[in-house]
Amino acid sequence: MPLLDAQGILRADEPDVVEVFNPKGRSEFVLVCDHASNRIPIGLKQLGLTSAELQGHIAWDLGAAQVARKLAVHLDATLVLSGYSRLVIDCNRPLVSPQSITPVSDGVVVQGNVGLTEAERAQRRDLFFEPYHQVIRQILDARSSQTTQLLSIHSFSPALAQEGADTLRPWHVGMSFKEKPTLADHLYQALHKNEQLCVGYHEPYAIDEEFDYTLIEHALKRQLEHAMVEIRQDQLMTESQTSQWAERLFEALQ
Ligand SMILES: [Zn+2]
Questions:
Q1: Is the pLDDT of residue 3 over 60?
Q2: Distance from the CA of 58 to the center of ligand 1, in angstroms?
Q3: In angstroms, what CA-CA distances link 231 with 28, 104, 129, 199, 228?
Q4: Where are the domains of the chain?
Q5: Is 191 helix (H, G, I), strand (E, B) or coil?
Q6: For the segment 124-144, what is each residue's pLDDT rounded down to a tens digit?
């Protein structure tokens, strides 16, 4: 049950801000899904967005949580999922980033994030961002004598309004890493063998200290092998598609 905060953003009957799936997983992989949920706490009144806007890619990584859960089952891996939307506070952005609590996302004004006070920003940090990363930290601390590889599962929009909605991004999947290429290279080579797939290398996103947080904070600081996997969202629309991607990633990790 979430902590009740003084201002009533989170109610006692709302879901936890962080979920640990398969906590006793025996795999050397630990999975994280920063953008698993599009949930906005009731107290934040949808941040002024419509329900349709909250179903879209600005609020979450569509399909990523399903792939991550299924992959965690295949691997018998522990998976950490964020329980609330990236629009509340983005768990994969440094707190100093203008996109941490973004007032605009892909051209959509997020009214509930406009003109926040420092106290309101700190409250979001304390209620959503810190608990998520604290759980990842505790899991990695407890495994400090084991080999661990950290795999971050994301999905990306086939087209961005700001890039022109007609411009389809070509990659089906992309891999990124920072400084430690082993895992990302392995995944890239394995997926690249499938001629049907356009596989990105540091595409659609490279990992950058300015914009990324999770792998910088948890993998690089501990010198863990790691990779960020980005799957294009139009391939994650059905159960069978998310199952196929989970199996594909599982095979590629062998
Ligand atoms: Zn993401």
A1: no
A2: 10
A3: 22, 23, 24, 10, 10
A4: 18-252
A5: helix
A6: 999 999 999 999 999 999 999
CA atoms of 20 and 69, how far apart (whole Å): 10
C-alpha 34 to ligand 1 mean position (Å)? 6
Ligand 1 centroid to residue 232 C-alpha, Å? 11
Residue 35 structure tokens: 């953008």
What does the pLDDT look like over 38-97, one tens digit per residue?
999 999 999 999 999 999 999 999 999 999 999 999 999 999 999 999 999 999 999 999
Q: b vs e for 157-166, b when ≥16 Cβ sit within 10 Å of the residue's Cβ?
A: bbbbeeeeee
| CATH architecture of the region 18-252 | 3-Layer(aba) Sandwich (3.40)
User: What SS3 state is found at 28?
Assistant: coil
Helix (H) or strand (E) holding 120: helix 118-124
